[in-house]
Amino acid sequence: MGVWDKEQYVREGVPPFQDERRFTQVGKSVPKIDSPAKVRGEAIYTDDIVLPGMAYGRIKRCTEHAHAKIKKIDYSKALAHPGVLAVLIGDEAPKKWGMLPQTANETVLAVDKVRFNGEGVAAVAAVDEETAEIACDLIDVEYEPLPVLLDPFESMQRAGEIQIHEDAPGNILHEGEQVFGDVDKAFKECKYILEREFKTNMPQQGFLEPQAALANYDPQNGQLRLWSSSQIAHYLHRQISDVLEMPMNKIRVTVPTVGGGFGGKAEACVNEFVACLLSRKIGRPVKVTFDRSEVFYTNKGRHPCHMKMKIGLDADGYIQAVDFDNTLDKGAYAGWGIVVLFYSASMIHLPYKVPNARFRGRCVYTNKPSMGSMRGLGGVQPRFAMECMLDELAEMMGISPFELKMKNAVESGYTAVNNMYVPHTEYKRSLQKAVEKSGYLEKHGKLPFGKGIGLAGGYYITGTAYTLYMSYKPHTSVLLRVDTEGGVTLHCSAVDIGQGSNTVMAQMAAEALGVHFEDVHIQSHDTEVGTFDLGTFASRLTYATGIAIRDAAEKINGKLKEIAAGLLGCRADHLAIKDRKIYSIYEAERKSMEWEKVVEIAVNTTGSLAAMGHFSPPRRRGFDLTSGKRAQGANIGHSPTFGFSCQIFEVDVDLETGKIKVTRVTESGDMGTMINPMAADGQVEGSIVYNLGACLYEDQFFDKDGIHLNPNFQDYKMPTIMDMPEMDINTLTDSYDPTAPFGAKETGEGAVQPTFPAIVNAIYDAIGIRFTEVPITPEKVLKALKEKKKGK
Amino acid sequence: MKQLIALDINDQIYEVPVDPWDLLSDVIRKKVRLTGTKKGCEQGDCGACTVLINGQAVLSCLTLAIACQGKKITTIEGLAEQDGRLHPIQQSFVDYGAVQCGFCTSGMILSSKALLDSNPKPGREEIKRALSGNLCRCTGYKKIIEAVEVASETMSKEGVK
């Protein structure tokens, strides 16, 4: 067993057989099942695979322009070069792809024009990487440069003159409005009203493993296999089928070990299509691995947001209205755009009670790499605005931000005005615990100039309510097999990207079946061996697979209990299974059998046991029963349940250099049951450092022609170990969501939400300056300090 | 013109044909086929390709293979015992949750090994400095530091090198 075992979920006075929280496998910090292979260097990532006869693919990119018509592509020299096997251009695969089928507008390689710097215009397959690279240089492309639009407001303004997509007038992907209650009337009755504007940056995911894909098309039987570093085996499967115009059942997607994703691999990637298309063309396996600059060129980082927010409180400090206007910089292609737009809209409805809310937003095309889904998608930007404003409003009222947030925090059973339902929350206790552990109330406003402490809260979804294409099928299915040879095998195509879903699934399956976690074999990462799963995004896996696992296990347990009941001479519904034993809950001493023995008898009588389990999230869409109105925003933001957290940051501002050092972070989160506390802590610690980087320095830069200026880790700075603050993680160990599988909710995306505003509020506490733009670089700090001095 | 060189990797001699400009990381991964050494940036920024050369942590993506003849190279595959038992640093990375996606892990462990070999009882700041060239995007580094501290204790207790 692990070394960080925390208190068990045992309640005094509840007999074990009635206590659904008395776990033996869940709640334990067992080491991750894939870590031994990883520390030995034996885990196989996609680029590590070499197949017999494998060719190497490479993409020719437009590095000289960000927006240009393609006049001519001449690849005759490349094709004639020895060792070159094939060349591919955009016209050969014109079918458009994208995460949302309704807005799919990206082609594998640019057709007619390029819309961002670094977009692919051709691809080659060659016998080795060097030849592939030479071949790319031998391709001549003639461009006619077009005006470059880099700012969303300029893009809207000049849309009449220059349009990025023919079918997007105004250069707008989508514009939307959501109105709940009477916002204007509510503001009239507010005592405290604050209006602010905020602007966020363009960080990218920064996973360490560049994308790699290996495709192998078999011309004999028309089957295609794809190995790829992806978070979304299923959506990838679907899109490959679409673009290659092949039925899904002729394609098998396998995901080897994934070297991090953070949402960056939650979208199909050009190298996957290129590998498949080239392999089909030459009948040989083709591998396409990106170098770091290509990861930057094609990255689908966080949407820069230009936000206007207005919040009104009544005389007692209760929020009465929130008005939120958001302009998102979409970059070149649609991708996850509409989803992100409306997630940002939903974020104002929690974790505080907001009776009247209005959102207006638009997702605007620019000539930058497309933005996409990045850890905590849609939440980080509005959370930044809202938590900073509540800090300022508390100051206006003369009360502590903690008090203001406690006053407005939601409680279990809350339904927001947009119909988002919160079955369970311990947000208030998270706030309390973080405040208590950090000494926030004693320090806030009382530290010497240059030192500060800041508080912020946040929440995130535990999976989505809807698939991205219209479908009613369950979002996750698992197959549990029990036999005398393999023991327990769990099949599910869910992908572990390092967060530990394979381990967590094994723990949950063991708990549900009453065996030990090391008894469970996991068959995941594969659309053929694994059963259906939607993918690794939206903090959905623990919850979704947990419910499906419990569903399947109940079926297996039912069969075993029936057999054991006959053998033990008792009722099947009096039997429990735990710790590899089947026993009567009333006569555990006398009536008990080894689980393995019962399995053997079952297999000998009727054969191996197998059961499917499914998860479908509750659907809250449709018509509001009282008003008869259709729910707004396609119900993006709804989730079976939500995770909550509070972070308190302490910072030192160097008044000479403007450098901000985060010294200490105190966190307390409500994620329900931690299936694996050590892994859960790892998610929280990782989240804090992740967004600390984006708050203080990470950003992508472009020159006036849209040329990417820092597509490498030298110029794109991410936090190193030297930037790590002291971290005190106090996840609530007794939080339990009775509606969730094993009581477990999300983490890993919720924990990135409070980071920006907690830092920004701490900086205000330190130097009395409220920043409304991230990243907060030393230059900005020095400039603000100078202005402040002048003002005095 | 390729030339045949002999590389001593994990106490085994590999004869490989290389061009003078071939990088050690590529030779290790593609010619020797030890894929535990990872390439995250190929520009010396991320540390995923760290190997030990004569006991020193070196970025193999900035090192020419041809310059490594006659030197002792250790990759992540050379760290465990002959019977497959994990080295204490590997074991503590597993036990203390210092591994998430695993892509930085080989480099992290080898940088830690170089540190602990030269400084068996490092302080927290010394650990940080030794690992400052190894990026990790998953863990937030906290559990990595804890793992190195535990490994340092185990190694000095058991006299492991």
Layout of strands and helices, then pairs:
The complex is a heterodimer of chains A (792) and B (161).
Chain A: H1 35-39, E1 55-61, E2 68-74, H2 76-80, E3 84-89, E4 113-114, E5 120-126, H3 129-137, E6 140-145, H4 152-157, E7 172-180, H5 183-188, E8 192-199, E9 212-218, E10 223-228, H6 233-244, E11 251-254, H7 270-282, E12 286-289, H8 292-297, E13 305-313, E14 319-331, H9 337-346, E15 356-365, H10 380-397, H11 401-408, E16 414-415, E17 421-422, H12 427-438, H13 440-443, E18 451-461, E19 476-483, E20 487-491, H14 501-513, E21 520-523, H15 541-568, E22 575-578, E23 581-584, E24 592-594, H16 595-606, E25 609-615, E26 642-653, E27 660-670, H17 677-696, E28 726-729, H18 755-767, H19 778-791
Parallel strand pairs in A: 1-12, 10-11, 14-15, 20-21, 27-28
Antiparallel strand pairs in A: 1-5, 2-4, 2-6, 3-5, 7-15, 8-13, 9-10, 9-12, 13-14, 16-17, 18-26, 19-20, 19-25, 22-23, 23-24, 26-27
Helix pairs in contact in A: 10-11, 10-18, 14-15, 15-16, 17-18
Chain B: E1 3-9, E2 12-18, H1 24-31, E3 50-53, E4 56-59, E5 72-74, H2 88-95, H3 105-118, H4 124-130, H5 142-158
Parallel strand pairs in B: 1-5
Antiparallel strand pairs in B: 1-2, 3-4, 3-5
Helix pairs in contact in B: 2-5
